């Protein structure tokens, strides 16, 4: 067994785990969902559901990880005592690798747009045009560059790689979002965006569509089900209070999502004021890649010379959000290969990065048929089912006294606390039902 790494501080873990949860989806998905689903009413429902649904599953992953001190495959194997646990772990390993395959392509687009802001500054129009024009060569080159950045961080291990960079990147992310919010709020049209984002429409609060959207956002925004939190939990010191630690991660993730809304929605309404279309044919706000690669670049262009600098800072922000997620995704298969196959961390990291790059390239060569299919298979189907399985292991398979023993290592009075009075039955009965309902609907 290789010597396992460990987070050297509570702050390091919280920022790394929150960074894993904070991804591109938080920044482009959450804000437009808020503005399209009752404004602040959606935010309120999202926060409630984040703690009702996502937090209990997050805690299941953290407790399993720290108790077993293992990768996802071995951890679920130890808890179940049979091959089914290991099969579930392998399923998570494959799912997270596929997610990283398409994620690296999207992050590569972010990277090319970031470089385009630099070529714009130096007046290199030919390069700028190539960097923002979709092509197979561009997609593969920048996907590869992004994966190399990810691998370089993960090669350093837990304390000297993941933690070291998380405690630098996450504060930078907060500072950049803060600066952009202040700047965008001074522009014409921003006040309408603030109204759309912050004024609640409580008539929508019990709307089934809003509830399902908020539930899905709460679950997926914390990168649950695929073992990232389980593996990070396996690197947590036994003296740490896990319920408090998990709550801190959830709060930071929610805070970033809300801050992203404070930036994106006012920016979209500034774009509308500048004559840029921000609504699709159905009359809802544009989201996803079209928002990031069409609406916002048009906004930056309409700002004149200052727009190039704003674009530079914005795409730097997107790169940080992408990296903090990708390093946690790569760590899931790396932990398994290092611990099970006896490979050195460096060999495991670069070997798996090459496999993911090949997978990304296959998707890039078949973009029309594979890109959407892989996203749907992994995030809409595989991820919630894996979350369901984790609830089954934590609630039904793993012995209750073993769970309590693990929690008490960093929280002696756990039995008297609210967490232990609610969580065991909640993760056993409520969470699986809610996740299945999400999946069916």
Automatic annotation (TrEMBL):
The chain crosses the membrane at residues 12-31, 43-64, 84-106, 139-159, 171-190, 210-233, 245-272, 306-327, 348-375, 381-398, 418-440. It is a multi-pass membrane protein. Keywords: Membrane, Transmembrane, Transmembrane helix, Transport. The keyword Repressor does not apply. It comes from the Bacteria. This is Sodium-dependent transporter. The keyword Transport applies. It is found in: Membrane. Pfam families: SNF.
């Amino acid at each position: 067994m290789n010597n396992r790494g460990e987070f050297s501080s509570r702050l390091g873990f919280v920022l790394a785990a929150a960074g894993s949860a904070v991804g591109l989806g938080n920044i482009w998905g959450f804000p437009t969902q808020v503005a399209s689903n009752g404004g602040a009413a959606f935010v309120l429902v999202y926060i409630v559901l984040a703690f009702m649904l996502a937090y209990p599953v997050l805690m299941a992953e953290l407790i399993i990880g720290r108790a077993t001190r293992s990768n996802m495959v071995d951890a679920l194997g130890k808890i179940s005592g049979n091959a089914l646990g290991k099969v579930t772990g392998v399923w998570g390993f494959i799912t997270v690798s596929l997610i990283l395959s398409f994620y690296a392509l999207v992050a590569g687009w972010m990277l090319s747009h970031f470089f385009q802001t630099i070529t714009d500054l130096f007046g290199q129009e030919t390069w700028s045009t190539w960097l923002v024009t979709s092509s197979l060569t561009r997609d593969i080159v920048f996907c590869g560059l992004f994966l190399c950045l990810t691998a370089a961080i993960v090669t350093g291990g837990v304390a000297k790689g993941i933690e070291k960079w998380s405690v630098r990147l996450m504060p930078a992310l907060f500072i950049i979002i803060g600066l952009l919010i202040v700047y965008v709020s001074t522009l014409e049209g921003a006040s309408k965006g603030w109204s759309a984002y912050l004024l609640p429409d409580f008539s929508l609060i019990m709307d089934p569509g809003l509830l399902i959207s908020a539930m899905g956002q709460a679950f997926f925004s914390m990168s649950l089900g695929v073992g990232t939190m389980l593996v990070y939990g396996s690197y947590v010191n036994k003296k740490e209070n896990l319920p408090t630690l998990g709550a801190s991660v959830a709060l930071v993730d929610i805070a970033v999502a809300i801050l992203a809304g404070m930036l994106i929605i006012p920016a979209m309404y500034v774009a509308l004021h500048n004559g840029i279309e921000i609504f699709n044919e159905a009359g809802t706000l544009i989201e996803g890649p079209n928002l990031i690669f069409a609406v916002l670049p048009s906004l930056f262009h309409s700002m004149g010379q200052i727009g190039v600098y704003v674009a530079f800072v914005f795409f730097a922000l997107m790169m940080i959000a992408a990296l903090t997620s990708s390093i946690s995704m790569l760590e899931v298969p790396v932990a398994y290969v290092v611990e099970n196959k006896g490979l050195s961390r460096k060999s495991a990291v670069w070997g798996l990065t090459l496999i993911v790059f090949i997978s990304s390239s296959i998707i890039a060569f078949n973009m029309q048929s594979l890109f959407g299919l892989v996203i749907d298979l992994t995030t809409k189907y595989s991820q919630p089912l894996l979350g369901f399985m984790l609830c089954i292991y934590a609630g039904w398979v793993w012995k209750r006294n073993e769970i309590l023993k693990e929690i008490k290592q960093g929280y002696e009075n756990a039995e008297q606390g609210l967490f232990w009075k609610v969580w065991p039955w909640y993760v056993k009965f409520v969470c699986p039902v809610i996740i299945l309902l999400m999946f069916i609907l």
